[in-house]
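Our working data are protein records whose layout never changes between entries. Instead of coordinates, the fold is spelled out as a row of discrete tokens. Here is such a record, shown just as it appears in the course material:
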Amino acid sequence: MCGLIHAFPRNTGTLPGEKRYAHGMIIASFNVNSVRQRLEHLSRWLVARSPDIVCLQELKCLDEAFPRAEIEALGYNVATHGQKTFNGVAILSKHPMEIEQCGLPGFEDEQARYIEAVVSLPGKDNQQGEAIRVCGVYFPNGNPAPGPKYDYKMAFMAALTEHAKELLTYEEKLVIAGDYNIIPEARDAKFPEAWTQDALALPESRAALGRLVNLGFTDALRATTDSAGLYTFWDYQAGAWQRNNGIRIDHLLLSPRAADRLIEVGIDKDMRAEEKPSDHVPIWCRLG
């Protein structure tokens, strides 16, 4: 069972402890780096953390090859936007959901990198409660930069920003969760100097992420802590995990209505220490 590695509660005026979060809702993002290879890891984590909604990235399989039965047996509704061998995104939800988009609107793309759903949340006394819109996203890596792959990354980000601008006009609870493949600041890398020429940390990449955030979103983690050394990815090469040579590239962006309900954020770092793990670990937030 994975434990809570980094949790940063907001100052809610109440004493620490899980009981005050009993009625919260957990929304998570997890790049599984092949859902079929990581099914056991994913299943154990779903049972241990019990998130309400999960956005998965890098499924690396077609929709029909997704282990739907195994995930549904754990109590989740499943929506996928898959692709053979590469990419692929999914949303898992304990609550009913309607799929709004498979693929980013206004952006012609053969790669499966975006999925969007509206989840119906339970209310009091078995009545239907509020809905929340969840977007699962897997940004292009963009390397080598400059070049066509970086142009694709920037075009994808521009299209997402335009779509997000429209979504914010709905004034809903909205979470854009996923692997952004962007290191926002130097403190989000163990060795920031090693990334200065990489597409994940180029000034243009960070500026593009800034344009998205500045529409009115809140970076959930940074709303709860200013600490450095909080990572979601460790490469398989050169002993990165053993040296804690990590970076933070998995993010949860919250609309104003969602941010108002933010209680805590966690990174389940221990997942990276398991046998044959993903190179990413889950990040999650709890909304009141």
About this structure: The domain at 25-287 is CATH 3.60.10.10 (Deoxyribonuclease I; Chain A). The chain has one domain: 25-287. The two ends are 24 Å apart (CA to CA).
